[in-house]
Amino acid sequence: MDVIARAWSKAVRTALPGPWRPGLVVRELVGALLIGGLAAPIEVVSHTGLALPMSAAAALLFLVRRGLPATALVLTALAGGVGGGTLPLLVCVGWSAGARVRRVGVLAGSFVAGWALMTLFGVLKDAGQVPVQLIVGFSLGGYLLLAVLPALWGRYRAQRRALTDALRERNEQLVREHAMIAHQARLRERHRIAQDMHDSLGHQLALISVHTGALEVDRTLTDRQREAVGVLRLAAVGAMRELREVVGVLHDESTALPPGPGSGPAAVGGVGAGAGAGGVGTGGVDGIEGLVESSRAAGTPVSLLRDGERRLLAASAGHAAYRVVQEALTNAHKHAPGAPITVALRYEPDALVVEVVNPAAPEPVGVRAGGAAPAVVSGGQGLTGLRERARLVGGMMHAGPTPGAGFRLAAVLPYRGAEGAGAQGVGEGSAAGPEVGSADRAADRPLDGGPGGVPGAAAGPPKRRSPVIGCAVGGVAVLLAVLGLLVWGVIGFVRAAEDSTVKRSVYDSAELGTPEAEVRKQLPRGSDFFLRNLEGSGPTPPAGSDCVRFLSDDNGGTGWGEDAVVRFCFKDGVLVEKQHYRVKQ
Questions:
Q1: Packed helices 288-297 and 202-216: angle between N→C axes, nearest 10 degrees
Q2: Tens digit of each residue's pLDDT (9 = 90 or more) over 436-468
Q3: Model pTM?
């Protein structure tokens, strides 16, 4: 019993899908009553004797058309072949089938099956009374008008609604992606600012600390002057510590983001991007000499070596070389103050090799006699940022200790892309790198899915053809088919009428006693649609004779509702009587 109950519940939910809101319940009940009420009088006029069954069936099929559209269509068409009471319902189920059946094969199969059953039952019901040509023609024409045409309109509305919903969802998705891109661009800009602050300001503060440390141990200064210089050095160290903290906050909020095109450590510019130490240098390969001069001015022996023929270098790679040297000098000033530094630029056949080497510090610098060495401030982001810069330009970086307790930092930066705009390395003074703010402008790109649009949606929303064209073509095809069927039916009707009519000349030429075969050769073949009501009409025929009746083209003097009829009676193989009379229709 539980299995039966569950199966019944599932069948009801399938045939009558919810949710059943009060407005929908009222609408469905009123529609069922209206369709059932129309079916009864149509069946009464058709004299089928199926008024009540057809009325109940029409109401039930109207209710289940939403859940079982294909089944309702086939059953309605079948009932339409038996009687005409379900013809108004055919419009409703055709609309529902076109709007709700998604699979084209199921939809086409249900319509073909419905028409075939409707025509078959129509032929079986009216066989021998109506020409098959008329039954098929009018059945197909009526089916196309009452079922197929509403289905095309319903499918057009459904596809238009689906297309509108898809476009609305696509627009909402693009808005969300646009907001995400804007947020990512802001975080990448934070990362860029943090990296530039770390490279530029950190380097300059390190130089200030080295200068003040050297002054603090200068024996020519008085104690008060050395105390003032010590305060300045501590202020520089404190400024570096605060800078590291700010850089850490900005960097930590951006490290979870994948670097996008034109963003990340390689996309530098803006704050400190083109500033060398002490305002010298341009931030490119030519700015390295300014960095070296600034370090020499701080009292650190720095040598710059160049090897190989200078080659064009992409702007981003040149800027990466500048940052490598800047970071290496900053680290050498902090961790090995006073140690000599060697900066080497080697132009290899396929890449520029930047190398910065320093030995261990000879002795603590920057402290007073008997004092402790100042704590080294390190944010832990410099080398990580350099590796990312080298990776983004297609190169690599290595940093590590040397056998003499020193430190070596080297980077390999390829030349590729140097032929394009912004190449530097031979007399070029600009090394601003990639276009500044490219990550910000990524958030301002259009949402139409065209070039420069949302990543992953460069082709825009999937192109979908408008349902108007297909449904319009289908509607025109249906109307042309109906028109053709009507013409075909009219032609068939005219031919059936001609096959049931005897000309006056044939009637007059037929003489009594003429062999039956000769007379029948001149008579038309007849049609039951026109002649079935003429059986038994006219005067009493001769006893034992076999009579045939036809309409006559000589209908002069006949009134409205009357037909002119001719009758030929045969007996023993010859014509024994012919009559011309009128009958009421």
A1: 20
A2: 334 344 444 443 444 344 444 444 444 555 556
A3: 0.46
